[in-house]
Amino acid sequence: MQKILIVDDHPLFREAVCSSIRQAFDDAEVLEARNLQETVEAISDNSDIDLVLLDLNIPDTTGFNGLLTIRTQHPKLPVVVVSGNDDRRIVAEALSYGVVGFIPKSSPKSMLKEAILETLAGGVFLPPSYQRDGEDAESAPGSNGDLAKQLSTLTPQQFRVLRMLSEGKLNKQIAYELSVGETTVKAHVSAILRKLKVYSRTQAVIKAQNIEFENILAADEES
């Protein structure tokens, strides 16, 4: 059973999102919050929340301050921004604060379901237009898509997770082999996607297909 927290000050929107989630996930438990204070309280009272769907424009906070509060107090909790403003600069800034997804409020129900599935699996979901633009920029001549530089930012544990992703293993299997919780694995996967500048596990695996993991990990252990 998944536990999802919806944060939005408009009752009709919360009701619509709640209905969409329950239609897509029969056993989902949905919590609601209208402002930052209620959000912080809900997270404190429910340590097993799997995902937060956060509107940036809620009472008692401005701009990205609410998001920063959540990320600071609960850095491993996956947060997806749901906003009426999908300007690329807003999306990029949200990503820089460590969110695992960005869903425009104009999105159809099918996209909401896709986004939740992707992020619950440890992926990062972005609007299709943003993904296309990002892929174009990544492949453009002179872009900063330097794989070696990106790989240098990964921790040894993130390398291990990336290797297991390349082997087709699920979060549950990775957690078992590394003796950590699934939440920790999801956090590693999200960090890997951000550092490799990709938007899905599949893209990460494709990007890492020529990496000699054993040599890298062996060298790290020797040092």
TrEMBL record:
Residue(s) carrying 4-aspartylphosphate: D55
Pfam family of the protein (one): Response_reg
UniProt keyword annotation of DNA-binding present: yes
Domain of life: Bacteria
GO MF, any single term: DNA binding
Domain Response regulatory: start-end pairs: 3-120
Keywords: DNA-binding, Phosphoprotein
Entry keyword Phosphoprotein: yes
GO biological process entries: phosphorelay signal transduction system; regulation of DNA-templated transcription
Protein name (record): Response regulator transcription factor
Domain HTH luxR-type: 147-212
